[in-house]
Amino acid sequence: MGVLVLNCDLGEDECVAQTERLMALVGAANICCGAHAGSLEKTRATLALAKRYGVLVGAHPGLAVAGGRGAALPSAAAFDALLCDQLESFTRIAAEVGVPVSYVKLHGTLYHAVEQAPELAEIFLQRIQSMQPSVAIFALAGGTFAAHARASGIRVWEELFADRSYTADGQLMPRGQADAVIDEVAVAVARIQQWLESGKMAVEGGQSISLKGETLCVHSDSPQALPLLASLRRLIG
């Protein structure tokens, strides 16, 4: 297994001090584009922090609703317009700050939408292919979209989640379900340690499934994000 890169969703509604504490522990930052949370001013400040810490930068576009989760899927035209607006503003600010954009990771509902809606998946791929210089994507480890994107010639980082539970088919458990978010650091770390040793991720029902991944996410709004990231950093070295 290659180096596992820790990533975190940043520039959202966490305080500035928390952003910096989390940034210091990760190798990649998925930075909000100022729509589902945060603001463009916070995006700029978070990009500057990423530059200071030498962290890979990813744009994190999402639905322009509070939290960017749980909303109805946009139409194809609305999705394309969202991507265009958010990615153009993000790349412009990143250029002004002087930091390259290495990848794009969809946020919340959109992250899962490209697994389920082929039309939206194709629009996302076309938008990524149009970006210059070319960028990679973060996508659900073991998902159909990761394979589709790779077949289209796009660099894919398959992503695992430290603070979220998995269903038996390798999807993230919906946040509305009990135990969807893992808020005990010891439990989350033990699960990732098992995966590192065996390649198998514990899922609902006491089972485990084989998963490969190159990057591991902790959400900044998880209750124990900071101690979890610190523990994971010690675990993976």
Q: Please bin the fraction of helical residues.
A: 40-55%
Oligomerization: single chain
Number of domain units = 1
CATH class: Alpha Beta
CATH architecture descriptor: Alpha-Beta Barrel
Low-confidence stretches: none
Q: Beta fraction of the residues?
A: 15-25%
Counted beta strands: 9
Helices and strands in order, then pairings?
Layout (H helix, E strand, L loop, with lengths): L4 E6 L5 H8 L4 E5 L7 H14 L2 E5 L15 H22 L5 E2 L3 H9 L1 H13 L5 E5 L3 H8 L4 E6 L23 H14 L1 E3 L5 E3 L4 E5 L5 H12 L1
Parallel strand pairs: 1-2, 1-9, 2-3, 3-4, 4-5, 5-6, 6-9
Antiparallel strand pairs: 7-8
Helix pairs in contact: 1-2, 2-3, 3-5, 4-5, 7-8
Model description:
The structure is a single chain. The model has no long low-confidence stretch (mean pLDDT 95). 43% of the residues are buried. By secondary structure, this protein is of the alpha/beta class. Strand 1 (5-10), helix 1 and strand 2 form a beta-alpha-beta unit. The chain has one domain: TIM Barrel, CATH 3.20.20.370. The strands form two sheets. A seven-stranded parallel β-barrel has the order 1-2-3-4-5-6-9, surrounded by six helices. Strands 7-8 form a two-stranded antiparallel ribbon. The radius of gyration is 17 Å and the shape is globular. It is built from eight helices and nine strands.
Descriptive terms for the model:
globular, TIM Barrel, alpha/beta, two-stranded antiparallel ribbon, 237 residues, 8 helices, single chain
Short recap of the structure:
The chain is of the alpha/beta class and 237 residues long. 42% of the residues lie in helices and 17% in strands.
